Amino acid sequence: MKKISVIGAGFAGLTVSLRLAQKGYAVDLYESSSRVGGLLGTDRTEHGIAEHAANALIRTERAEKLFQELGITPSYPLDSSKKRFIFRYTPRKWPLTFLETLFFISKFLPKFLFSKSSLKPRDQETLENWGRRNLGATATEYLLGPAMQGIYGNEISGLSSKLILSPLFSGRREKYKGLLTGPGGMQDLINKIELRLKELGVHIHTNSSVDLKNLQGVVIIATPANVAAQLLEDTHAELSAILTKIRMSSLMSSTLFFSKAQETYKGFGCLIPRGFGIKTMGILMNSYIFKDRDKTYNETWIMGGVKEEQLLEMSDEAILKLIAEERFQVLGAKQSLLEYRINRWNKALPYYDLHLEEAQKKMADLNLTLAIEADAKKIFLHGNYLSGIGLSKILERSDLLAAEIGRQHG
Ligand SMILES: Cc1cc2nc3c(=O)[nH]c(=O)nc-3n(C[C@H](O)[C@H](O)[C@H](O)COP(=O)(O)OP(=O)(O)OC[C@H]3O[C@@H](n4cnc5c(N)ncnc54)[C@H](O)[C@@H]3O)c2cc1C
User: Cross-referenced Pfam families, in alphabetical order (predicted)?
Assistant: First the structure.
């Protein structure tokens, strides 16, 4: 049986190990921490569950198939989650005025109908500049900005339009059918993958510190980009130097359980554009998204990004005080707090900026995007800095890598 080593047991490492083990490879999965799952995980409290980071996957056919084969009955969002709010002095379902909407349509629609190529993102063009060019300033500020900051955890002034929008123009997008998660949250998914890996004979080595020099054959590095850069430093200096240029960004996710639900705004949540002096980027109204998971109403508040990394250094007490103030300002709500969980993710996510665009381009030019061959090793890179930041994209790359390894190595 052919041996494969996978380094990093986040969603990328776990899912690629699963696909390879299913193809009959003998997989050793090395994880530096004491548990698998990486950013994904769920705390159970007496009031309900609190996610460590992601609360769901995009419901693609591939994601549905994963849940099915693992025997997980998915939890789908409630109808109430169809409503989404964007803050503009108050949470609104549509944040533009009538005249602003007309201007936005008159700017975007002719291009969309008659000149789609002019909508294509340009090299080294920020998402903000793309938005101003194609949607106008107001729609960029109140629609595009908050929507993208909700996914990429950063202001659009630094994000790369090419990295984020190119898949829309490639014509090979998977169909989007909403969201899905496990009935007990994302930990259900992690537990089931871990169990299946063990059934398939995968050796999971937690608390392990692995040296690339000691591994032979096919190796998949599924760690964050900065760790991949360190692992490759001695053996693959050129690639390591490119990966070092990828900037990592921090995010903080705070889940708060309240004595009583706020009922003024019932929906998926509220995104908060920059410019109002509010630190929070977005609020998830968890109890209006998934049913039967909580005993009491709860929300998740997301803060951070490269411009607000210092927020992660605040004490729990200071964070709760800030959220209480902003909660009153945004939702006008003041219910008393029963319980909370704060997750600080320091330099844990790739910053989808122009440096990452440049790094991906260099890797593609040097033909390093998929596999690197050297001294009796073939190294494949995996993770959210290559495939797209979301879990459905990571899953797609796991399938792609497993197919490619199968093709090359039988
Ligand atoms: C607050 C927040 C909310 C999010 N919400 C969503 C969402 O709703 N939907 C969605 O699709 N995505 C969401 N994301 C993004 C998504 O969670 C991540 O992109 C994804 O989990 C990353 O998976 P990964 O395996 O690439 O990396 P990671 O989860 O970072 O895993 C990397 C693993 O490598 C290990 N490792 C590090 N160094 C070493 C080493 N030297 N040796 C061995 N192992 C090592 C780490 O311990 C870790 O387990 C969110 C992210 C955050 C932070």
Answer: Amino_oxidase (PF01593)
